[in-house]
Structures are given as C-alpha cells and as structure tokens.
Amino acid sequence: EQLINWNPDVIFIEESSLASVINDTTKYPEYKELKAVKNDQVYGLMSYCLYSYNKDILLADAYYVGKVLYPEQFSDVDPEKKADEIFVKFVGKPVYNQMKAVQGGFKKIEI
Whole domain around residue 97: which residue ranges? Predict the structure, then answer.
C-alpha cells in the first residue's frame, strides 16, 4: 500500500523475494502502474540475508545500486568485477558467477 503511495522511479528487489513480488503484482494489478515498473526500472539484487547477514553480498549490492542510481559517479565500476573483488576479500575467491547462478545476479527484472 505504501509503495503505491510512494510511486518510486526505481525499485530494487532481493531476488529471493521475486516469486512473492510477482505473485503480489498478479493479485494487485495496481503495482504494474508504478513508475518504476512502467519505465522498466526494476532491478534485482542478491539476497544478503540467507542463513545469516552476508556483508560481502550487502557491499556488492551497494555498488550495484550506486551504478544504477548514479551511473556517472560509478562510471569506472563494473558491479560484477567489484563483487568478485569483495568476495575475494571475504571468502578467498571470486564467486560472483556462482552466486549469479543461484540467485540471479545483477540485472533488470521484468514484472
């Protein structure tokens, strides 16, 4: 209800919640009238809260959000490469492609 009142220009969705979001947009067609949905500005994020808080994923998501919202300021950032840099620091190896295979990775979402 509040989301409809806000009518945001951009929406970010944790991809682990995507099935619920799609279900809600089917039940409540007014969600399809949101500016972000109508203008194809809905983006998927990796879920940082799986079993515990995964700070590496949270940081990687933040870079992706920055790239989407502030492309000029983040023009030198490739979110997938940055995610791998972060994963190397936290888990010792680049695992973005594995995470992408499981969670969907950074991408636009069609609702």
Answer: 2-108
The CATH number given to whatever domain includes residue 13 is 3.40.50.1980
DSSP assignment of 53-98 equals E-HHHHHHHHHHHHHHH-TTTTTT--HHHHHHHHHHHHHSS--HHH
Render pLDDT for 43-77 as a digit per residue (tens, 0 to 9). 999 988 766 688 999 999 999 999 999 999 999 99
Could you say which DSSP state residue 45 is in?
A: E
- Are 42 and 11 in contact by the 8 Å Cβ rule? The answer is yes
Phi/psi for 95 (5° steps) reads -125, 15
Please give the tally of structural domains in the chain: 1
Distance, in Å, from the CA atom of 21 to the CA atom of 24, rounded to the nearest integer, reads 5
Task: Quote the longest CA-to-CA distance of the chain.
Answer: 45
* Nearest by Cα to 103 from 53, 59, 63, 50: 50
